[in-house]
Amino acid sequence: MEHNRAPQSGIFVEGDRHHGFVEFDVPPPGSDAEALRSVLGGLVTAEDGGPWNAVVSLGPRLARELLGDDVPAGLEDFTGIDGGEGRRAPATQHDLMVWIHGSDSDVVFDGMRNCVGAVGGGARVVGETAGFVYHDSRDLSGFVDGTENPGPAEAPGVALVGDGPGVGGSLVFTQRWVHDFGAIESMPVAEQERVIGRTKPDSVELDPLPPDSHVARMVVADEAGDEIEIYRRSVPYGSPSEAGLYFLAFTDDLGKIDLMLRRMYGLVDGPADRLLEWSTPVSGAHWFAPSVEALA
Ligand code: HEM
User: Fold this and answer.
1) How far, in Å, is the centroid of ligand 1 from the Cα of 72?
2) 3-class DSSP state for residue 203?
3) Per CATH, is 9-295 categorized as 3.90.550.10?
4) Ligand 1 center to 202 CA (angstroms)
5) CB atoms within 10 A of CB 270
């Protein structure tokens, strides 16, 4: 990459078992945009931060307010997906999302409190989710999540805007899913495996792959025939009465995620994803995580 914009390093730090997500609404007008930018810049730089990693992501309106034209093409509010038959991916767009991750829940709690204190009273907290790594990086359904995720060498090329406005930053999609454990557990394991398209104990892709499995719906090629990739950092969250997956993905182009979502809902060339039999999204938003320099 021929630019010297550093991405927010927390995007790529893997291995932390504890995670927190705080969403805010930040009222316009941004007369104190400069002050807010410096607060947010402080959250992501090591000298002001704690022993946690913090990634700051801006909703489309706030991104334009703080960064002017330095935002990537295609950054618009998430407007949701209507898959018919009562199947919906709702939009719950807000202005600011901070992802904190660290080695333990106390570290993440301190990070989340620090973040809420720093962002200040002008902003309103509208969502707080505590996430965690479940066993050996499994979704709460028991399936390994992340097997086909790009590795450390490949992830920046997949996640970062490579040139033009917003260079060095990353476009982000979040979606909180609520699992129906009764629906999952009422299926024999072989049937659960057909829903995902991978074996449960060791995450081996099924051959043949059922066309309505999650993996079959999510593997899609671009016009040049290359497989479209995104960088997923989702984690489980919740308590036994309501739990699921906080889906979190980084990309250089939100159109890639939009295509995956439309395939999931059966709106392009093929059936809906059977994952929808098990889990329902209750939030959805687009964000932009600017480079460190753009925030500073
Ligand atoms: C309840 C929500 C979800 C669950 C439990 C879930 C779980 C999984 C699992 C178990 C795998 C297979 C292992 C792996 O390669 O990581 C997988 C793969 C994948 N998922 Fe999801 N997922 C969810 C939502 C989504 C959404 C919303 C998207 C995109 C919009 C997505 C995109 C992908 C992609 C791109 C792959 C890799 C496919 C491949 O290359 O083989 N997932 N997911």
Assistant:
1) 25
2) coil
3) no
4) 15
5) 13
